[in-house]
Design goal:
Elements: H1 4-16, E1 22-27, H2 36-40, E2 46-48, E3 54-56, H3 67-71, E4 77-81, E5 86-89
Parallel strand pairs: 1-5
Antiparallel strand pairs: 1-4, 2-3
The structure holds iron/sulfur cluster (2 copies).
Length: 91
């Protein structure tokens, strides 16, 4: 959970960002909660929630390097350009 101050900071940063907006689709049903994506991302886009599932808390930091997607052993992660939101799905 981000603090109010951090949310304001990222809202401002989002407006100035040179990177395109991206969305993350995390298929919880496929995810085995290994934490590879969380540890691998050098921009600290993800954190693990209480159950161990990755959550994209700083999508604005993503530079679309694709490491998290290509290294996910269960193909549970997708990046979609153009929305700047995170979406987890149980299906
Ligand atoms: S694409 Fe790269 S920068 Fe973006 S979340 Fe994945 S590992 Fe991090
Ligand atoms: S790398 Fe894939 S399986 Fe592992 S926590 Fe991330 S989304 Fe889940």
């Amino acid at each position: 959970m981000l603090s109010k101050k951090t949310k304001v900071k990222y809202t401002e940063k989002k407006k100035k960002s040179k990177y395109p907006k991206v969305s993350f689709y995390i298929f919880d049903k496929w995810c085995k909660r290994c934490g590879i994506c969380v540890e691998l991302c050098t921009h600290k886009v993800f954190i693990a929630d209480d159950e161990g599932y990755p959550r994209a808390v700083k999508p604005i930091e993503c530079n679309r390097c694709g490491f998290c997607v290509t290294r996910c052993p269960d193909f549970a992660l997708r990046i979609i350009e153009g929305r700047g939101e995170e979406q987890n799905t149980k299906s």
